[in-house]
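Example complex used in Figure S2.
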Amino acid sequence: GEDVEQSLFLSVREGDSSVINCTYTDSSSTYLYWYKQEPGAGLQLLTYIFSNMDMKQDQRLTVLLNKKDKHLSLRIADTQTGDSAIYFCAETFSGGYNKLIFGAGTRLAVHP
Amino acid sequence: DAMVIQNPRYQVTQFGKPVTLSCSQTLNHNVMYWYQQKSSQAPKLLFHYYDKDFNNEADTPDNFQSRRPNTSFCFLDIRSPGLGDAAMYLCATSRAIQGANVLTFGAGSRLTVL
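Predicted assembly (226 residues):
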C-alpha cells in the first residue's frame, strides 16, 4: 500500500526549533523527500534522503530517518517567520515508476 | 530562469463546461506530471508522461484527459467539470535518471466550478 501520514498543524515561536514528523508505509521506498509550499506557490524541494542513510543535515535543516519505524522527521533550527508554510513529506513508491506519494502537509505557523 | 509555467493561475468555469489547463517548461525534462490538490489533502497524481508515453493512474476519472504535443507543453483537459473537481492543479516535471526523482513544480492553476 501507499500512504504517507503527517500531522496537519504545528505552531512554534520564532527562534525555536520546529520538528515536523511523517510516517510512511512503503518499506521499499528508496528516497524520501521534504517539499515546502508557500501561499500561492507550487511545491519546492527542500531536501531528500536516501533510504540507507539515517540523517542528513543541510544548514538549518536536519532530516532524520528511522527506517525500522518508517518514520521521517524534518527539524528546522532557529525557525523564522519566513519558514511559515506547508511542509509535505513524500516517498518514492516502489510499485510505480519513481512515483512520488505525498502526505497531506503540515502547516507551520511561526509566531513572535 | 528555467522554470515550469502554468496558465491560467485562476480558472472559473460552470458545471459541465470543459476546461483546459496548460503547463510549459524550459527545463527540457522528459517527464511531466499532473497532480490534483484539494484543501488540506495530499497532492494526488492524476497521470504522467514519460516522453510521449502516457501513464494514467488507476483511479483517475475518465473526465480527466491529457495531451503532450511536444517536450515543452502538457495540457490537462477536464471534459465535464463537477463541483468535486474544484481544486488546485499542479504540473511538475522531472528528468528520468537514476537516483532521487526531483520534481520541479509550477505555481498551480486553481479551478473553481460554479
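The first strand of chain B starts at residue 4 and ends at 7. The CA atoms of residues 36 and 89 of chain B lie 5 Å apart.
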